[in-house]
Amino acid sequence: MGEPSHPIPCLKPPGFLRKTLSLPQGKLYVSEKPVISGLSSDATIGDVVSSNHISRVKIVDYKTKRFEKVRGNRSERTPVIRLVNPAGCVSLNSFVINLLKTPFTAEVVGEEDLLVFSLAPSLVKSGRVLYGQPNTGVVELEADGVRILKLLKTFKLVKTVI
């Protein structure tokens, strides 16, 4: 008898958009070093980028390149919340991060790749997000929350198990 599974409601991007989202969506800084000097942001998504750049919001899953485990390197002074987010989705519970007004780290069980969409309500006026482009460098995205919310409307509501 296995453990009971609990479906998680989440938004899944259409196939054509998933391929597009795997390409850099902003200015790509190509570097072999994990730090790009002079970059600042409102949010960082990804373990390597979050540990090497300053931001108010850090979203990590303690993995890089999908499988390699990364040791946690969070500031002891910022609160930590934990989210469940299945791979390839934006869980509905992840939108809770917009309620937090102080700096924080979101530790994700699952995958954090698409969670820039969860930040959209906080980025309506605009904001800067940094995320890693595996084996290439760092992407700086001037996020337009309204545009992101329009893209979210193309996502399909599904329930998935992690």
Termini gap:
18 Å
> Would you tell me the structural class of the helices and strands?
mainly beta
Beta-strand residue percentage: 25-35%
> Order of helices and strands, N to C?
EHEEHEEEEEEEEHE
Q: If helices are DSSP runs of H or I spanning 4 or more residues, what is the number of helices?
A: 3
Q: Please summarize the sheet with the most strands.
A: 7 strands, mixed
Low confidence ranges: none
Query: Percent helix among the residues?
Result: 10-25%
State the total count of DSSP E strands.
12
Strand order of the largest sheet: 2-11-10-3-4-9-7
Mean pLDDT comes to: 88
Description:
This protein is 13% helix and 33% strand. The longest helix is centred in the last third of the chain and has 8 residues, at 145-152. The chain has three helices and twelve strands. The chain is globular. With 162 residues, it is mostly beta strands. The two termini are 18 Å apart. A hairpin with a 3-residue loop joins β5 and β6 (68-69). The model has no long low-confidence stretch (mean pLDDT 88). The strands form three sheets. It has a seven-stranded mixed β-sheet with strand order 2-11-10-3-4-9-7. A three-stranded antiparallel β-sheet has the order 8-1-12, with no helix packed on it. It has helices at 15-21, 47-52, 145-152; strands at residues 8-12, 27-30, 43-45, 57-60, 63-64, 68-69, 80-85, 90-91, 104-110, 127-133, 137-143, 156-160.
Quick recap:
The chain is mainly β. The chain has helices at residues 15-21, 47-52, 145-152, and strands spanning 8-12, 27-30, 43-45, 57-60, 63-64, 68-69, 80-85, 90-91, 104-110, 127-133, 137-143, 156-160.
